[in-house]
Amino acid sequence: MRTPAVIAATLVSCSLLAFADVTLVEDGQARAAIVIPAEPLPVEQYAADELAYHVERATGVLLPIATEADLPEAEAYVFIGATKAAAEAGIDTAALAWEETVLRTEGNRVIIAGQDEDGDPLSTETSAGTLWGVYELLERDLGVVWMWPGELGTHVPQTDSVVFRPELAAGMTVSFTADGVRVTDERFEPWLLQRGIRAGNMMRGEPPTQRFTPEARAAYLHDQSVFVRRHRMGRNHPLSYGHAFNSWWDSYGAEHPEWFQLVNDRRGP
Fold first, then answer.
1. Which CATH superfamily is domain 11-177 in?
2. Which of 85, 86, 105, 182 has its CA 20 to 30 A from that of 260?
3. pTM over cut 0.85
4. Distance (Å) of CA 211 to CA 95, 183, 198, 215, 222
């Protein structure tokens, strides 16, 4: 008959085994492969690419990316997205909340799964829970900091080993319906100049010589989108603010003209 102490020790050992450290890179050598579903969503593919990119910047080692159907031999695996491995671990990505993330280590496996949508991974209206999980580990376990858009604003500490640790196993949900910052994009040109620093595009009417080239502008806009997503910005509800009442006259003008301004004896928007 086992004593309570033996039983407790056995349970602790099993728990530690289930949440053992998982080594991705050791002494400058790849120890792990990144695994995505057989038919990955764009978000899942992008999450795998982002993980590989930052690990390579930290170590100089490019981890291979493969599908579950083509699983390579490796000492450890990082499963990204709605993989069979995630399902076997009891993670039902379809049941997760908007942008919810589940991080788990089991034996030699790291499982990063979240609630994702089939859309542009750089769009703030595409749910990207799996991508958020990758960024969480890059920040907490690799020390990555994204200070401003572009490679120059990305700080990746140099190391010869990368280990994902068991205390990172967690489930996380977003706290806001919408979060973000207003950045320059192709939809508008900013009008504001401050201290001679221009916010991306130029003011309308400025000489072409003071504008970005088309190539530089495209790169700038892309870097902004990447930066915003790396800070987990997105929204699951379309919000209209600032110019929020543009459509109210069409919707309510006939029934409630008194809601609107009276100018020269005439109601209107």
1. Chitobiase/beta-hexosaminidase domain 2-like (3.30.379.10)
2. 182
3. no
4. 47, 17, 10, 11, 17
